[in-house]
Amino acid sequence: APSGREALAFKFDSKGIPGLPAPVPYREIFVYSPRVEGIHLRAGPIARGGLRWSDRRDDFRTEVLGLLKAQIVKNAVIVPTGSKGGFYPKALPPASDRAAWLAEGTECYRIYIRALLSLTDNLVDGAVVPPADVIRHDGDDPYLVVAADKGTATFSDIANGLAIERDFWLGDAFASGGSVGYDHKAMGITARGAWISVERHFAELGHDIATEPTRVVGVGDMSGDVFGNGMLLSNALELIAAFDHRHIFLDPNPDARTSHTERGRMFALPRSSWDDYDRTVLSEGGGIFARTQKSIPLSPQIQAALGIEAQALAPSDLIRAILHAPADLLWFGGIGTYVKAEDESSEDVGDRANDANRVDAEALRVKVIGEGANLAITQAGRVAFARAGGRINTDFIDNSAGVDTSDHEVNIKIALQTPARAGQLPEADRIALLASMTHEVADHVLDDNRRQTLALSVAEREGAAAVPAYERVIQTLEDAKRLDRRVEGLPTDDLLAQRAQAGHGLVRPELAVLLAHAKMAVYEALVASHVPGDPLLEADLLAAFPAPLASRFPDAIRTHRLRREIVSTALANALVNRAGIALPFQLAEEHGVGLACVAAAFLAARQLFDLDTLWSALDALPPGQLQLRLYAEATDGLRLQMADILGTYHGDLSPSRVVDLARPGIARIEADLATILRPEPRAAIGRLRESLAKLGADAQTVQRIERLTALDGAVATADLAATINASEVQVARAYSAIGQTLGLDWAKGRAAALNPADPWERLVVATAERDFEQLRFDLIRRIAPPGTDPALAADAWARAHPECVARVTGTIARARHGAATTAPMLAHIAAQARAALGG
User: Fold this and answer.
1) CA dist 275 to 92, 295, 443, 467, Å?
2) Which residue, among 583, 563, 357, has the nearest Cα to 459 in the 3D structure?
3) What secondary structure, in 3-state letters, does 209-236 show?
4) Distance of CA 766 to the CA centre of its chain
5) CB atoms within 10 A of CB 2
6) For the residues of 780-800, what is the DSSP string, one character each?
């Protein structure tokens, strides 16, 4: 497509081009002109990500592709998948002429943006309008959203102006973060999101970073958004060393409060550098040095602080010493890849500018790493640091708050188009409303950070026992072509087996990759299903927007162009954050249904058992072992209920319909639990209550978790009661009586407690567990004619068939008094019970 006469733009279906390196984009646009060349890569039809001013003339597509890979996983928490763009100005004047250099680069950005828009479909009154004078071979494709990145932090207004000039449907939602939008630096949102990761790491180590002295080394300076905001988030920080591209800052024994005040002054000082730091505030032996110096003298205090003996070092050597320092926290807020794994080469890293500054993760001496910056550490480096005992997530987990905020901004602005066009929201009022919602947008975003980091901690707690489950998730994602193990740095099956045998599980950086891909898989399944239209999700839709918008313009939200995508994102995040990474895939495989069906079961269970109240109570607990244990128990109970829903309704799942059918019966069963529960399940619940109480769990939270276990089978019971025209309490009593009489309660409990050694064993155990429940319902269905009392019928059947009872109870008695429970043992018990009961 010609963009006036200034540039040419070509749009490619990347998957149709052989030989492209992974990940292969969904679409890409190449821009060419005598002044600038650029690329824009998208991973899907609805995608967003930043545009950077590249300095890599010969391989800017490679640079942008690497950023796209990171953006895809980072965007798992938001509606769009990842996109990235980059442009390279080809005729810049000398950088010494700053004004001319910036003017030419800015004009190249304009040419690049106009070219992207020149072959992008528009929306006019809801109808797609292709661009004029363009040969179009693809379908409708009007969603093009961009954001700021390296070198373009102040360019959002320029991009939005060009979009408005072209009458592009997104208006100033085209580029987030402009003057009428959410200023990430003013909100401190990226740093605050990453700090949530840092706080959880330290809290789980028993350290309160808000009040206890914490020694820090870092990359960046106080004028930077992420570094500057981060270093102001606790006044107990002792920043002993930092560096940016200009200076090296050294303060071996800082006073936490005084240095915090000085950092705040520098943050407020426009275009500050470390050279502006008040040297009278530095502790003895400290200093600030230009990186242009050939050698930097090191005081005894600095030597002690960095754990080195050299009296002077070249800047690159000193930077490596800072990264190797024996501090508590390494905080990344600057550009560059500074840490790799020992077995990686500089060529593997692909950041030549920092080859001399880079260190191996295995040699780091900090306890915690906070990745406020992108690509500061290679994935292999993260894994190596974590396996050595360090606390780290990934950049796409830690600094996701920025992209999350931008997504909220875009979705809010799209919603506000409806009242604005209807004359209900003048421009001045729209601007005021956007500004008034800043704090609530931040709260929404930071909640996402809290839930993701908590989900990683819950997953990490499972350790080696969960390796087979994660192995199967990886295999499933690979089979579906959703994940490339080599690209994502995940271990082979053989290495996973070796880890498990050695008693080690996946580490947080690996779990973070699976967390993101699990969410993406669930999201894609949901968008293609009927589930997003379920009435139960309207609350999730409205909750995705700030309360002032939801109360003033609810219809604008209900008719949002991205409604399906927004609720699918919310549900996918909730499912994986709350139920865990592996559970959706396990239930899908065990029940032969798709991920959308599993998500529907989750939605129904959440409503039926008021799980939001339970999760809110757990979220409010301080990070630590009690919170993680309670989450694990709640997830076990959730699994029981989701399996019950899937087993009862199979693939025909309308969540709201399930709730309507099951809720009255569950309430009647719960009211009579005291007369329904038999000794085996009652004892199991008692043991759970006692163990949680010993940990210090409050009684109300324990009661809510107990309820999930006690009501196991209630959904199927309510369904059967309706089928045979009996009361739910009668069916429940029959269910319990059969379970006690035959010993099936014990067998099901042992199946639930077993940790399968591999995915096949898990399927055997899951099948047996379902059998121990389903056999009871099948028997009740056969022996209790409509209108009779199933409990009386169950007692009568047991008296009339002593040989059947003896066959099952004898097998179970042998198992109970034998060796440890195994999957073959459970499968044999299920087979014997099925044969004896005629099921």
Assistant:
1) 29, 17, 35, 50
2) 583
3) CCCCCEEEEEECCCCCHHHHHHCCCCCC
4) 27
5) 13
6) HHHH--TTS-HHHHHHHHHHH
Residues 6 or more apart in contact with residue 810 via CB below 8 angstroms: none
Query: Would you state the pLDDT for residue 110?
Result: 97
Is 615 in contact with 578 (CB distance < 8 Å)?
yes
pLDDT at 211: 97
Q: Tell me, what DSSP letter sits at residue 295?
A: -
Task: Extract the tokens encoding 764.
Answer: 């055997």
Q: Tokens 């019950």 map to which residue?
A: 644
Give CA–CA dist 755/464, Å, rounded: 10
Tell which residue, 347, 519, 488, has the closest CA to residue 22. 488
Sequence letter at residue 263: R
Q: Can you tell me whether residue 439 is helix, strand or coil?
A: helix
Residue 519 is a catalytic residue? no
Q: Is the bond preceding residue 23 a cis peptide, omega within 30 degrees?
A: yes
- Residues 765-798 as b/e (b if ≥16 CB within 10 A, e otherwise) read bbbbbbbbbbbbbbbbeebbeeeebbbebbbebb
Which residues fall within 8 angstroms of residue 61, CB to CB, at 6 or more apart?
39, 41, 86
Alpha carbon of residue 49 to chain centroid: 17
| DSSP 8-class letter at 24 | P
Helix (H/G/I), strand (E/B), else coil: 563:
helix
- Three-state SS sequence of 823-838: HHHHHHHHHHHHHHHC
Spatial distance between the Cα atoms of 335 and 344, rounded to a whole number of angstroms: 20
- If the chain, 839 residues long, is cut into consecutive pieces of 10 residues, what is the mean pLDDT of each piece? 76 94 92 97 94 91 89 89 95 94 97 96 93 91 91 92 95 90 93 98 97 98 96 98 97 98 97 96 98 97 97 98 98 94 93 94 98 94 98 95 94 96 95 97 97 97 94 95 90 94 96 96 95 96 97 96 96 97 96 95 97 96 93 95 92 88 95 87 87 90 93 93 92 91 88 84 89 91 89 92 92 86 90 83
Residues 635, 579: Cα–Cα separation, whole Å: 6
Q: Among the residues of 345-461, which ranges form H helices?
A: 346-349, 379-387, 395-398, 401-421, 427-436, 438-461
φ/ψ of 614, rounded to 5, equals -65, -45
Question: Do 227 and 372 meet the contact criterion of CB atoms below 8 Å apart?
Answer: yes
Tracing tokens 């009927």 back to the chain, one arrives at: 530
In terms of C-beta density within 10 A (0-12 exposed, 13-18 middle, 19 or more buried), how is residue 675 classed?
Answer: exposed
User: Is 81:45 a contact under the CB 8 Å cutoff?
Assistant: no
In sequence order, which residues have a C-beta less than 8 Å from that of residue 603 and are 6 or more positions away?
531, 534, 536, 537, 571, 655
Neighbouring C-beta atoms of residue 694, cutoff 10 Å: 8
| pLDDT (0 to 100) of residue 839 | 53
Using an 8 Å Cβ cutoff, are 808 and 775 in contact?
Answer: no
Residue 61's CB is within 10 A of a number of other CB atoms, namely 20
Strand partners, 371: 332
Q: Given the residues 11, 69, 74, 84, select the one marked as catalytic.
A: 84
Q: Which two tokens stand for residue 207?
A: 């350290």
- How many whole angstroms separate alpha carbon 436 and alpha carbon 457? 34
C-alpha to C-alpha distances, 131 to 124, 168, 296, 517, 518, nearest whole angstrom = 12, 11, 59, 34, 36
Element (H, E) at 42: strand 36-42
pLDDT score for 481: 87
Taking a C-beta distance cutoff of 8 angstroms, is the pair 393, 189 a contact?
no
Report the SS3 class of residue 670: helix
What tokens were used for 569? 């994102």
The residue behind tokens 């619940």 is 685
Q: Tell me the CA distances in angstroms from 806 to 698, 746, 829, one per residue in order.
A: 43, 16, 13
What whole-number distance in Å separates Cα of residue 779 and Cα of residue 669?
20
Residue 237: enclosing H or E segment and its boundaries? strand 237-243
What H or E segment, with its residue span, contains residue 704?
helix 699-710
The C-alpha atoms of residue 408 and residue 177 are separated, in whole angstroms, by 11
Location of structure tokens 């319902």 = 777
Kindly state the helix (H) or strand (E) to which residue 39 belongs, with its residue range. strand 36-42
Among the listed residues 46, 91, 196, the one whose alpha carbon sits nearest the alpha carbon of residue 569: 46
